[in-house]
Design goal:
Cell/Rod_1, about 325 residues, Cell shape-determining protein MreC, MreC_beta-barrel_core, Cell/Rod_MreC_2, alpha+beta
């Protein structure tokens, strides 16, 4: 349409007519005179609108799905991070609980023997220092640690300090073949010397070849002069085998140590010896023996007679068969 005076006049009239129809429709409400025309228009143009809507909806749905997928992925990633953090926290708590348990047990052992100890953590094992049975702990001269101090944990004797640096120290374990410690038997006070044998039980030579020793007897450290390198009364282990005496001057025992040398974590260095020998007071309580059940069979006289009669009957039947 060309832009003329007549076309502009027609446009103004159409706009004025549209406003007039809108006003009449609003004022008429449900009885609006243009309601029929609106319904007719809906009938004509409704299918077209539905078709357009159906064609456009998949695109909108796809956009929404992409948006929702991104949100779900972000939430899943967040949950995975939370779970990983939770697992790490639980793992850390388990390790801390284990360490607290070890520390508590060690403090009870130190309290029973009246040992003044400096707690330490094992930070390296012997492979880093050759192939001897040694560990490195995270305390040293700056913490008051000196050479030839006794090292223990909540189970018993761990070893002795051999080398000291400013902040670390090396400990020779009781399982090392070069390790020797004086021992005393629980109860009869028989003295001996225990030596390490690697991953095998400790070998103990009892000075009295005629000493009465049996499997299950227990040993503690005898102690050294001036309490270096060993303080007295530290649990060593339990006798697992006794060699026959054979008339020798000494007697050989094999002792399972209380300490597990391959799982060491928290240990204590004895920096102050007890005022007096604790003797056997640091040893753990003895396990209670498991009672062996006994079975008693009682036979009543009637049962015996019945068995006798049955035996006689069997004999008579056998004779009849032979005849």
């Amino acid at each position: 349409m060309r832009d003329t005076r007549e076309s502009r006049l027609l446009l103004v009239l159409l706009v004025a007519t549209a406003f007039a129809l809108i006003t009449v429709d609003i004022r008429g409400g449900e009885d609006s005179p243009v309601d029929g025309a609106r319904q007719a228009a809906a009938t004509v143009f409704g299918p077209i609108q539905d078709g357009v809507s159906s064609a456009v909806d998949p695109v909108g749905n796809a956009i929404a799905a992409v948006r929702d997928s991104g949100e779900r992925h972000d939430r899943l990633a967040e949950l995975e991070r939370e779970n990983a953090a939770l697992k790490a926290r639980l793992g850390s708590d388990d390790r801390n609980r284990s360490r607290l348990k070890q520390l508590d047990k060690m403090l009870k052992t130190a309290g029973a023997g009246q040992y003044g100890i400096k707690g330490a953590e094992v930070i390296a094992i012997g492979a880093a220092q050759g192939f001897s049975w040694t560990i490195t702990i995270d305390v040293g001269a700056d913490d008051g640690i000196q050479r030839d101090m006794t090292v223990l944990n909540g189970d018993g004797l761990v070893g002795r300090v051999t080398t000291v640096g400013p902040s670390t120290a090396t400990v020779l374990l009781a399982s090392d073949p070069d390790f020797t410690v004086g021992t005393r038997m629980e109860g009869n006070d028989e003295l001996g010397f225990a030596s390490g044998q690697g991953d095998r039980p400790l070998r103990v030579e009892i000075l009295n070849g005629k000493a009465e020793i049996k499997k299950g007897d227990r040993l503690v450290t005898f102690g050294s002069q001036a309490d270096r390198p060993f303080v007295p009364g530290v649990p060593v282990g339990v006798v697992s085998r006794v060699d026959p005496s054979g008339g020798d001057l000494t007697r050989t025992l094999y002792v399972s140590p209380y300490v597990s040398f391959t799982t060491l974590d928290i240990v204590g260095v004895v920096v102050q010896a007890p005022a007096k020998d604790p003797r056997d007071t640091v040893l753990p309580p003895k396990p209670k023996p498991t009672p062996t059940p006994t079975v008693t069979v009682t036979v009543t006289p009637g049962a015996e007679d019945a068995e006798g009669a049955a035996g006689t009957g069997d004999g008579e039947f056998q004779q009849e068969q032979e005849q």
